[in-house]
Amino acid sequence: MERTVIIPALNPDEGLGEIVERNWELENQIILVDDGSDKKYERLFWELGEKCIVLHHEENRGKGEAIKTALKYIKEELWECRVVGIMDADGQHLPDDMEKLLMKAAAEPMALIVGEQDY
Q: ∠ CA 37-45-101 to the nearest 5 degrees?
């Protein structure tokens, strides 16, 4: 897939499943990074692994390191990837908004597209 969404997650709530599902419907490759979540979240990550690539950190290393882990995976394994978006696991970012950013980025090669929220 040309579009990949990275989602770093630490002890996520049930809303993460909806975020993954919607990105799946939008035909985005999803890389979910379990950043050292508690054992009780193992099943959630396992279930979400049916629709996305799940990478694991044994201990919490922080959001930045989780993003680096995903970017390294993309570089080494997803050669067809041309556009990368990064979303939070808590529902702060909507998949449909991410889709708009990904489409804009696809039309602007070599660009960095940054979204912002208006409150």
A: 95
Domain that includes residue 46, residue range: 3-107
- Evaluate whether residue 93 is within a structural domain: yes
Examine residue 94 and state whether it is found in any structural domain, yes or no. yes
102 part of a folded domain:
yes
- Which tens digit of pLDDT belongs to each residue from 35-71? 999 999 999 999 999 999 999 999 999 999 999 999 9
Across the beta sheet with 83-86, what order do the strands follow?
Answer: 53-57, 29-35, 3-9, 83-86
Please tell me the chain's helix, strand, coil percentages from 3-state DSSP, rounded to the nearest 5: 40, 20, 40
- The answer, as to whether pTM is greater than 0.85, is yes
- Residue 30 to residue 95: CA distance in whole angstroms: 11
